[in-house]
Amino acid sequence: EVQLVESGGGLVQPGGSLRLSCAASGFTFSNYAMTWVRQAPGKGLEWVSAIVGSGGSTYYADSVKGRFTISRDNSQNTVSLQMNSLRDEDTAVYYCAKDRQRSTGWYGYFDYWGQGSLVTVSS
Amino acid sequence: EIVLTQSPGTLSLSPGERATLSCRASQSVSASYLAWYQQKPGQAPRLLIYGASSRATGIPDRFSGSGSETDFTLTISRLEPEDFAVYYCQQYGSSPYTFGQGTKLEIK
Q1: I need a surface site. Which of A18, A61, B40, B46 has the fewest CB within 10 A?
Q2: How many CA atoms lie within 13 A of A72 on its CB side?
Q3: Are A33 and A106 in contact (CB under 8 A)?
Q4: How many C-beta atoms surround the C-beta of residue A91 within 10 A?
Q5: Residues of A in contact with B44 (CB under 8 A)
């Protein structure tokens, strides 16, 4: 059974940093791109960042480029999102999601999602 | 960036009725790389449809997707009580991969 479990969310002041992690199980982790998608309270979904299975390519939304860094550890089956210079507008539930398509690249649609980790940026 | 506009914003129907949800793209979505997700309160989204018309694993056949280029539709043939939720379309043909703003399907 595929499972994705996020951790690391919490309350942080504007300008602060936070690191989210997602532990994956139930599939061959290195064969799939992984993506972070966020959802602000009461709002829709926004793609944030993605990383291909090898870790060799990464992708970022313009809204987080230069502030967030995605990485993965295929030996530990984890994907992480380092978030720096956090802003009020980064407040959201952050989901990690698995690409449906096994690939060396990034297809960008998702068949499994974690339960989400709430990040609140507030003074 | 491709903007996806979903309509209506809210759809009020009764169990047993047919639901038709629309997703319109600001530019053609290449290779019909369009997906639909269902999200219930407090839950993560669930993949329903990919490639505009292919049902994801375990999705009942009352859910169907159609369309191409800029106009896409999700149809639920006969609504079950568990189908009342928010539905999002997403295009993954052109980066950045974008989502629509959602259609809330509520019980009439």
Answers
A1: B40
A2: 26
A3: yes
A4: 17
A5: 95, 113-116
Residues 6+ apart with CB under 8 A from A39: A45, A46, A92, A93, A95, A116
| Cβ separation A110–B47 shorter than 8 A | yes
Q: Which of A21, A10, A33 is nearest to A97 (CA)?
A: A33
Nearest to B68 by CA among B93, B102, B99: B93
Residue A104 has pLDDT above 90, yes or no: no
Q: Average pLDDT for residues B78-103, to the nearest whole number?
A: 96
Per-residue pLDDT of B31-82, as tens digits, reads 889 999 999 999 999 999 999 999 999 999 999 999 999 999 999 999 999 9
Distance to chain B for A117, nearest Cα, Å: 11
Q: Note whether A33 and A107 are within 8 A (CB).
A: yes
Decide: A110 and A99 in contact? Cβ < 8 Å: yes
